[in-house]
Amino acid sequence: MIVNAPLRFPEDITYCLLGDSDLTRHLADLLALLRPAARFAGFVDEVPAEHHLVVAELASEQAKTLFHERRNDPRLIVFPLPVDEMWSYWEFSRGFPGEVRYDGGLHIDSPDFLKYLASQKRIDIDKAGNIQVPRGSYLVNLEDEVAANRAPIAEVAAVLSDERSRQVYEMIMAGEPQQHWAHYLGRVFGSIQYFDYLDFADCQVVINGGVLGGYEIPFLACHLPPGAQVHNVDPLGHAPLTAYVRPWLEAGLQSFHEHAVALENYTGSLELPFDAEGEVSAWIKAMHPEAPTVTFPCTTIDAFVAAEGLDRLDLIKLDLEGADANAIAGAANSIRRMRPQLAVSIYHFVPDFWQIPKALIELCPDYDFHLEVYSYERWETIFYAIPRERRAIS
After folding, report:
1. Residue at 288 is within a domain
2. HSE (side-chain half, CA atoms, 13 Å) at 258
3. Domain final residue, candidates 56, 78, 100
4. What is the pTM of this model?
């Protein structure tokens, strides 16, 4: 069994956690809070005879062996963690300074949440208690630009395939910060960015565009079928991957291929800045044109598919720090011909919220379209496009 988030953990079981580490101790605390009916039988180094066993990290050879050999055992629960993803339930729960209560719904005192936002430098609170938010973090504060594009925004809203996606899109366009915060708290323990709506059952070839720390890699390793190929495409390749991620990449059930190149709408080279964490960013270049840059090779997805000799493409995930629209333009032939699923970031530049969906809607006839936001601001908004024939098969 694969579990992506605490609220997807089964409640009617007794379980042990493999290994006693900082990660497993925090996971035990989270499950005690959010799944109190599940009975925790302790940290173990051996496979228990009767209880479910939870594997949350591949830090040992035993964990890797279990991941390989008992992947389909109903008493084995593989629980990848979104370590170092700042918007995820993992980092939120580790950094939150107040009390969290759960009784079928999440309860967090408003002052505690505001204190958390201030600690993350997402809001300022003056001595009088007045709250100031970064103007660009919420589209409601950019009403002139949004109002000038009501027609394309309405076109996108009309094509979204489910009511939740339409409500989320409306909130992003016009919602006050408090609505974003409530939405975040309502879903943060229940799902993981890039992994809603997608079907992994016959997903054999993936382009993972934009990798950085690679927190999505453990989830891909868990969900993709054995033998799948994942092409990790990032200007810095695998260099910034975290220590938590690397064992999942090296587990060997799938083939993860490193490609140190940027995705663009042309083939050649480009100048981009990158920060201390290794994030190469067209958004930083646009916001801070004075920032020092480095020359990187770049290519299109169409050229990449041809160079790699790919005869199928089942999923494209893009989080390219502002280059997403260009990458889609450079993938048009592959998308039309191979009809992959897509999970695409649409939040870096304000026009991305309607221009990228419109481009994909035009490229993808007979697709269903969905949307979710995974932060408590406008950031981490993902547009999903799923070919309808895949729905019919599944």
Report:
1. yes
2. 13
3. 78
4. 0.95
